Amino acid sequence: MSSNSACVASEVLREYAAQTGLAPELVPFARGGSLGERVLANPLLMAPMAGVSDAAYRMMARAGGAALAYSEMVSVAGLHYGSDKTWALVVPKDPEPDIAVQLFGSDPAQFGEAVGAVSERLGSRLALVDINMACPMPKVTKGGAGAALMGTPDLASEIVGACVAMAKVPVTVKIRRGLHMGKEVAPQFARKMQEAGAAAVAIHGRYAAQLYRGEADWGVVSRVVGAVEVPVIGSGDVRTHEDALRMLGATGCSAVMVARGTYGMPWVFCDVVPTTQQRLAAYACHVRLLEATGAHMARARSLAGWYLRGMPHAASWRNRAMRCVTVDDYLAMVDELVAAGAQT
Fold first, then answer.
1. CA–CA distances in Å: residue 311 to residues 21, 25, 100, 170
2. What is the pLDDT of residues 96-132, one digit of tens each?
3. Is 0.85 surpassed by the pTM of this model?
4. Domain spans, the chain
5. What CATH number is given for 23-269 in this structure?
């Protein structure tokens, strides 16, 4: 599986996707009609994940059948100050047909400016803009951003309005059940976001205080569905394709975001149970996409833990991955796994 020359990402997919059970061509997000109509054909979305959902990761998810994939969280302050590192999170890489960009911050003016700038730069490749009102991490909430906005609903409404005024695509919001345990505010907060102009609401079924501990309450997804007229996107504890279908049926939501369920499992969107051989091939393909998109190859270390999970001697192979540096180092490791007879 080793390769001494870098390929462009589209060539990587065309050459290696067949070995993985994934699609060699990425299908654009449905166009025309309302957002609700557009997700009807394929309601499974790859969630935004900080430090995870880079271009290579998005491509794998789209090759696996995700209708749309989101950027990592993008700071509106970073865009305001013209940070190249921040812009690198926004701009899709070929062959990505389109992207959903998730913004975070607390300044309505910066949000409006960011939406205008992103819309101009991405053009038709911008599918929608999502406003993060769900991230519970203190480094985000201490500045009034992320889930902290659920405690300042008037400011949250102002942010939505500023984005809608500048957007040429749907503006959505992602929220949580509430800030504090036992104090559910999501249904009424979602209704306020709809009134401010949000085209859809994504709801994660945990309180911010829970971070990612405990179980997500899917009941709140149903309650938000009952509170608003715009599409609702369910999120939280969707680990398998079956989970996604169950959430759609149990809650009445229009679409489902899959986050941690995508770890080493791009097939989660297409209900395929991959063989070990396909998982190894997918890891190699993902590594090649990291190289083709200019990502730091250290990202392949965490990917190894996810793709190799459950395989014989997985811990020792994960340790081996920690010592890899170049793309050929990782591909050589995959060759050794194949030679060791790990595939089934």
1. 19, 29, 33, 42
2. 999 999 999 999 999 999 999 999 999 999 999 999 9
3. yes
4. 1-21+274-344, 23-269
5. 3.20.20.70
